[in-house]
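Go through this chain for my students:
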Amino acid sequence: MAQPAIDETMPAILAAPAGMILGSFATAVAYRVPRGESFVVGRSKCPRCGAQLAAYDNVPVLSWLLLRGRCRSCDERISVRYPLTELGLAALYVATVLVLGTDDLGDLALGLVFCTLLTIITLTDLDRRVIPNAVLAVGAVVGIAIAAVGDPGSLAERGIAALAAGGFLFLVLLAYPRGMGMGDVKLVAVMGLYVGSAVAPALLIGFAAGAVVGIAMVARGGTEARKRAIPFGPFLALGGLIGLWFGDAIVAWYLSAFFGA
């Protein structure tokens, strides 16, 4: 992936508010899609009283602070995850601009869309233990479209990476069905479309992070902790981010160190 060759300060600054706006969109998608609601039409509303949110009550982060985290109509508490997601995606956007640079706009667009997709997946898996097919399908189509325009020569590699990563995790699923679901398999395949061969270190990091958390849970909760299911999507998302930012460098180091390539 392209490395920044010029001062990326201004693009990174502009990426922050864009990330907050898309973070608000990500929370809406993560809430509506698992519940069978459309995220294309319909304004945001309070889930308790049904009051539609005015535009001035839907400004990322700022509105939550001004409302003190409560609905203006019924005083229902608004989860802190909303501003945290908006700030989190803003941080991911800034990091992506700084790491990938702006020399290759197609590559950068893929990275930003990928961050948004992983944020939505993390929210739905944490909240509902589901990775929606609709979100993955849209993410796959958008990723292929951007790659087809920006770097059509990479489509074959991305397709192979998607098939290989998805096939590998499907075999893991067959061997250990309690550890994950088909949503995780599909997510990994979509990750391959976005990061290509860098999906290999992304998978490794995802498994390692999941193992560390699992060991910590067992150490703290004993044998009872083994019965508690934890969503695997967020760990894969973490691996996907590392793969996006540093995956190509990791793959190049591995090939050089072990194969002299």
Summary: The chain has two domains: 1-103, 107-261. Residues 1-103 form one domain.
